[in-house]
Amino acid sequence: MEGEPTLRLRIFNLNCWAIRYLSKRRQQRVRLIGDTLRQEGFDLVLLQEVWSEQDYDELKVKLAGSYPFSHYFRSGVIGSGLCVFSRFPILDTFLYQYSLNGYPYMLQHGDWFCGKSVGSRAGVRAPLLSLSLQLHAEYCRDKDAYLPHRLVQAWELAQFIRHTSKAADVVLLGGDLNMHPEDVGIRLLRGWTGLQDAFADAMHFEGCKNGCTLVPDNCFTDKSELLSFPLGIRIDYILYKAISSFTVKCEELKTTTGRAPGTDIPFSDHEAVMATLHIQRQGQPAGATLGTADPALADVVTEARAEVGAGLRAARRQRYSSGRMAVLALLLLLLQAAAALATLAGLGAEQPFPKLSFCLLAFLALGVLVLATGLHLFHTMEVKMLHGTEDQMWMVLRALQERP
Predict the structure, then answer these.
(1) Strand ranges (DSSP E) for 232-334?
(2) CA pair distance 284, 2, nearest whole angstrom
(3) Is the distance from CB of 201 to CB of 250 less than 8 angstroms?
(4) What keywords sit in the KW lines (predicted)?
(5) Catalytic: 270?
(6) Fold of 7-281
(7) Which label site among 34, 129, 204, 218 has the fewest CB atoms less than 10 Å from its CB?
(8) Cα-based distances in Å from 176 to 102, 249, 363, 371
């Protein structure tokens, strides 16, 4: 009702970079994160890249007094790395795993194995739908082979928000989107859902210049990623949206600046993002719905669809190459099998090379056949997912163009 007290919501968002055995000073940093969260007393904490459930369990025990409600989202082979801690009861949780998550044979990147996802929780205040997420990493901006996958993830995230937020009054999204603010994926997500950027709308900001969350002053940051961006880049966000009779304003936004407050080391290779939001009920429903289109949305969807189409063509080429390799390996196996049968039947001459070499060649051909078949099936699924997203974007684009 009009005049109802404002709900002041303090949010903490961080990509923790807590990879077991690989991340530098992981245990020390996880303890530091827990100590800081316990002292600061945020209302809602959204964490990414907490890859070890043992780390989550330790945080849960340490934060039980300040954040009695928490949840860890399990996904993929090694887990989603997503978890939330809340002062308010968590009524429901749901995990959506993106249909495309990179390539299983890119072992050095590992995005496919963790099963990048978006985790949602429903709370009792407002009611509030909060989302913690991470999209596929970029790795190389000049030759970004994962851009189509990241756009598919951004599109699926936007659709996920549209279809799961109908019962909510406020949507809150925090996470590592692995995209710059001007990138097509961010513009697509914000344009299609109507989410507001806390950094852009904050009445007061304190932290790294331009709100950057990967900065050269952080000793854990890979400096090679920042060669073209001397001030740093902003890829971690807090986004929000009021749905019905509520309004949301960002009073204050802060980031850490290379080191955790009061210490000589950072929380992570990413900077933490901390926002203070004011949520208030109005007298009449605002009438706003998710998906309110701005004038440039059709252009954004067109650009995104073009990038997805380019990825689709690349996926088709990869499917053809792997299929051709599988056929060649199968023909080699059949040829070897025919030669072996002829020798056993006494119809052929003595084997042209030793049995050991013959067996090794057969095992090699079999291995190539299995690998190539697996890749062909994977790229077939990739083609279907990219084609499906392209079709969805085309329908949306047509509806936007026909709209008065």
Answers:
(1) 236-242, 246-255, 273-281
(2) 8
(3) yes
(4) Hydrolase, Lipid metabolism, Magnesium, Membrane, Metal-binding, Sphingolipid metabolism, Transmembrane, Transmembrane helix
(5) yes
(6) Deoxyribonuclease I; Chain A (3.60.10)
(7) 204
(8) 16, 21, 43, 33
Q: How far is residue 195's CA from residue 173's CA, in Å, rounded to a whole number?
A: 9
Q: How far apart are CA 270 and CA 258, in angstroms?
A: 8
pLDDT band of residue 122 (cuts 50, 70, 90) is low
Long-range contact pairs involving 158-161 (C-beta distance under 8 Å, separation at least 24): 158/188, 158/189, 158/192, 158/193, 159/392, 160/96, 160/118, 160/120, 161/131, 161/193, 161/195, 161/290
Domain layout of the chain by residue ranges: 7-281, 295-402
Q: 100, 382 in Cβ contact below 8 A?
A: yes
Token couple for 111: 């995005």
Rg (CA), the chain: 25
Dihedral (Cα; 240, 230, 47, 9), 10-degree rounding: -40
Q: Spot the catalytic one: 270, 278, 376, 387.
A: 270
**CB within 8 Å of 62: residues ≥ 6 apart:** 34, 35, 38
Cβ neighbours of residue 113 under 8 Å, at least 6 residues apart?
76, 77, 78, 104
pLDDT over 70, % of the chain: 86
Q: What's the pLDDT tens digit per position in 141-179?
A: 767 888 899 899 999 999 989 888 877 888 899 999 989
Q: Fill in the amino acid letter for 36.
A: T
Strand-pairing partners, residue 121, are 93, 130
pLDDT band at 292 (very low <50, low <70, confident <90, very high): very low
Strand ranges (E), 194-331: 196-197, 204-206, 236-242, 246-255, 273-281
State pLDDT tens for residues 305-332: 999 999 999 999 999 999 999 999 999 8
Spatial contact of 48 and 15, defined as CB atoms under 8 Å apart: yes
Instruction: For residue 284, give the DSSP letter.
Output: S
